[in-house]
Design brief:
Layout: E1 3-9, H1 16-29, E2 35-40, H2 49-57, E3 60-65, E4 74-79, E5 86-88, E6 94-99, E7 104-110, H3 116-127, E8 134-140, H4 160-174, E9 178-179, E10 188-190, E11 195-197, E12 200-204, E13 211-215, E14 224-229
């Protein structure tokens, strides 16, 4: 079974028109009938009826982790024909769903710079229950390694994004997770410093080769990440 995974830090989807625009861009880019969309920093506490109706028209369903005081918030969207067996660790910064028919787990995650290290250390407990499946750790980590190819700004050893990536690397190594992107394409533009950086990732424990792309979008300062999977075999019931 073929499907795509999309990820975007939306910087708010309170406007129903913005969610529609994100979906329409994914619809144009998708390479198969099925796709997953992980949105970070929704800044909403509930989905409006108009947004629910729109998703239903597209044959999609969703799970929302509400924002706290209009900060953060996660939304994962998928095709109605796919049913997750359970969700876990619905913390304010993560949502993990397991889809038994595909034997995959999607962890949608947003880590801002508030209590960044605490959140990085929490990833271990978040992922532990899902290691027997093909796992995808997806989202905005606000982190990059100490390497100039990951940013156009001047590298500084005390940069919290570099410190955060050092902690994240320990988790990635522990669970055999690697970046599905083959090149460190920039995923965020900081208007204040006028600099680019790679802050958004799709990590996986799969050994398969992936086709990953980064798309510029007018809907956010972050880029839209796309991952095409072509080798997942749909599981059959007993």
């Amino acid at each position: 079974m073929n499907f795509d995974i999309f990820s975007l830090n939306s910087f708010g989807i309170g406007n129903a028109g913005k969610l529609l625009a994100i979906l329409e861009q994914c619809m144009k880019l998708k390479t198969s009938d099925y796709f997953f969309l992980c949105i970070q920093e929704t800044k909403i506490v509930n989905i409006k009826k108009s947004q629910k109706d729109m998703l239903d028209r597209f044959g999609l369903t969703f799970h929302l982790v509400p924002a706290i005081a209009k900060s953060g918030g996660l939304l994962t969207i998928w095709h109605q024909s796919l049913t997750p067996s359970y969700q876990a660790f619905e913390g304010p910064f993560s949502l993990t769903l397991f889809f038994p028919s595909l034997d995959i787990s999607l962890c949608n995650i947003y880590i801002n710079q508030t209590q960044q290290m605490l959140k990085m250390n929490s990833i271990t407990s978040i992922l532990q229950p899902f290691l027997d499946s093909t796992l995808f750790l997806i989202g905005d980590f606000n982190a990059f390694p100490f390497h100039q190819t990951y940013t156009t700004s001047t590298l500084r050893p005390g940069d919290p994004r570099i410190t955060a990536y050092t902690a994240l690397s320990t988790v990635l190594e522990k669970f055999h997770l690697t970046d599905t992107a083959t090149t460190p394409d920039y995923t965020h533009f900081d208007r204040r410093s006028q600099s680019f950086a790679k802050l958004d990732y799709i990590f996986s424990n799969s050994n398969e080769e992936f086709n990953s792309q980064v798309h510029i979008t007018s809907l956010s300062d972050h880029m839209l990440l796309q991952l095409l999977l072509m080798s997942v075999v749909q599981a059959t019931g007993n």
